[in-house]
Amino acid sequence: xxxxxxxxxxxxxxxxxxxxxxxxxxxxxxxxxxxxxxxxxxxxxxxxxxxxxxxxxxxxxxxxxxxxxxxxxxxxxxxxxxxxxxxxxxxxxxxxxxxxxxxxxxxxxxxxxxxxxxxxxxxxxxxxxxxxxxxxxxxxxxxxxxxxxxxxxxxxxxxxxxxxxxxxxxxxxxxxxxxxxxxxxxx
Length: 187
Hints:
Blueprint: E1 2-7, H1 14-25, E2 29-34, H2 41-47, H3 62-81, E3 85-89, E4 92-94, E5 108-110, E6 117-120, E7 124-127, E8 132-135, H4 137-150, H5 155-158, E9 166-168, E10 174-176
Parallel strand pairs: 1-2, 1-3, 5-9
Antiparallel strand pairs: 3-8, 4-10, 5-8, 6-7
Helix pairs in contact: 3-4
C-alpha cells in the first residue's frame, strides 16, 4: 500500500523527516504530495466545488482550504487510478506496518483508534481529524460527488457518515507527532 503524504514543508523539515523515518522503519511505501496553499477562486472553479460559507467557516481559513484541496486532489487520483490509497498529513508518525486486513473493508478507515465524534446536519457523524486514513476508489467517488453537489466544508466534517461509510481502526497505526505545534489550517 502506498501512503500519500501531504506536506507544504521541504523534505528536510524535522516533522516530515520524522514521519518518513517512521514510515521507513515500519516498511511503508510512501510518496510526498505537495500541499495546495491558499487556493484562489479559480482553483475552486477548476475542481467544480463551492465553499460552504456558513458551516465550519472554511471560507475564512485559507490554510484549511489548502488542506481540503490537497485531500480532494488525492480523492480524484484514487478514483481515476482505481486503486485504494492511504492519505497522511505531514504531522503524524507511523506506529506499525500496513496490514491487509484494512483493505477488507469498503469503508474509509481512520488509521487510529478514536477521536471525538460529533454530528453535522448535512454530513452526519464525523470525527475530529483527517490526518491518516485509508480510502477506496468508491469512497473517493462518494466524497467527490458530495463535494460537487453540496459544497466543501471543513475536511473532517466532510468525512461524515451521511457522505461515506467510515470507521476507526482497532489500533493507532498513526499518531499525531507531539512536536507538531499548533494547526496551520487556521491561517
